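tool_call: predict_structure(chain=1)
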Amino acid sequence: MMKRKVLTLLSFLFFIPIFQMCTTSEEPDYYIIKGRLDNAAQQELILQELTTKDLLPVDSFETDDKGSFSYRGNLEEAGFFILRVDRTSYITLVIEPGEELFIRGDADNLPLNHSVEGSEGSERLSELKQHLQRNHQKVDSLADIFHASKYDDDFMEVRRELDQAYEEILKNQQDYVKQFIEDNPRSLASLIALYQYFGDRLLLRESEHFSYFEDLSRSLSQAYPANKHVLDLNRRVSRHKRNEARRRLSSESLSEGNEAPEIVLPDPDGQMIALSDFRGKHVLIDFWAAWSPPCRESNQRLKAIYQEYKARGFEIYGVSLDPTKEQWLKAIDEDEITWTQVSDQRFWNSPVVNLYHIESIPYAILIDPEGKIVQKDISPQELRDTLSSRLDE
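tool_result:
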């Protein structure tokens, strides 16, 4: 009797995992891409994955003599892929685990002539790409008119009209992208729209269109909480918020009348020179770099002002953002700079960049003999006027 009970218990325990294995449904970890391309008989197709940092090779396969193809791959999470005929003829796909895509198109101009079925994200991307391509064609037409009329007497007028037409096309694409994101808040295709370029111009920038980044981050996090592309967007949004908070604090600390933050950096001889060493004088903190033509022009204008006012209690504390000492010293010699120069040769990674909220150079701040800020982003002419009112007898 005891033996029968033990066998019954073992049978029950053995049955549990088998039952669970048969009834538990896991997400499919495959995807299938099928299709047929015109002008692509026995053509090699290349499949690449677009990660958050790189474009990685996945596989390659060939079409048959009718341009038909079929490919099966493994996939753990939704991602972006490039299906490429050659360098210029390719399409971007958003593929989810378990999806079976069917693609039709013309291999000679795949970006403009293709359709995708079986993947909602890829279908949305196809619409986005084709709208972009149509606007690119419009720009190409403008370029043809430009080259055909550049020797005409009314060329300047034609050019103004072409520039206006280009801006209208650019705005059309930007408006389309905004609407696309609003209409597809839970689609990974909207990530491609968010980072889309038109020529060399990024259509949406965090500094100007942050609500699109933040809203999409929120909606996609609900739909794809662990997806690497969504997590990357979340990090960007968080970083932008931190930077904006830092900028606000920096802006408040750099208000006129506040004491300028201390800077202590080495001069060309390696001697540490502090900004506070010049208390008792009006000091221009001049952020510049040898590689910046506007900075080099500013140096020439500052030379005359320095010569005029240095004997009356004026000093320049030049802070170079050059990446190498050689580049920095060469510019000092070429521009015949005689005022104080310091640099840590850390380029835009120098701590002074965040400390003084520097976004472009040349950038200059005038401080009074007590080290308090008189004026930020002061131009050479404004500097001359201010010094004249403060130091001229």
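agent: Residues 120-149 form the longest helix (30 residues). Proceeding to next step.
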